[in-house]
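JOB MANIFEST
job_type = single_chain_structure
chain_count = 1
residues = 200
[input]
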Amino acid sequence: MPDSTAAATVFPVNINETVTDSLKISAYTTWTYGRQHILQRETVRYVVVNPVETIANLQPGLSFTLYKTKEANYKKLDTLPFVTTGVFNFPQPFVFGPPVEAVYNWVKVNGFVKIDTEGDYLLTTGFEDSPLVFLDNVPVINRDKNCYVEPQKALLHLKKGYYALKGYYTADDVNSSQKLLQLKAADGRVLDPVTYLYHL
């Protein structure tokens, strides 16, 4: 664990290690001005996601279900009555107004990510209050990590095909002007959601 007595390291740092489960990284940053000290920790997880078999009759966008509830645990949402369902056709704000007296505006999204070319892709969220996003039932963005710090990132090597996507987030004014998901190709191109997000 680095501290104020550790030798400084020039960034970027190349780490030549095989990651079979997870790799924990810590950085201790100091500034002479103001004597600020910041300890940052990051965990790089190795995950495997697999495409599903080809699915017919898919439509553009993600399907969503809106819940207004005091329940804070997303795992219990499917047992509760919902307010409405619909489809997000991008671009569209992902907000349903401010919550009322500890009532959460929970949104559950379902759909598929279509990959036309095998390669490395960067999946990010612009939400300040991070969502929870699963691909192939594997959490690739976790709302319990990096909240209010910076957008979370998942670097994924994806084969050609369709990947089942599921996600949960609380819709309020904090994320009203931010993008839920963004997908970049290895060359840095930001892909148009209309070309890769689908639902049944």
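[summary]
The chain has a mean pLDDT of 83.
Helices lie at 193-196.
exit_status = 0
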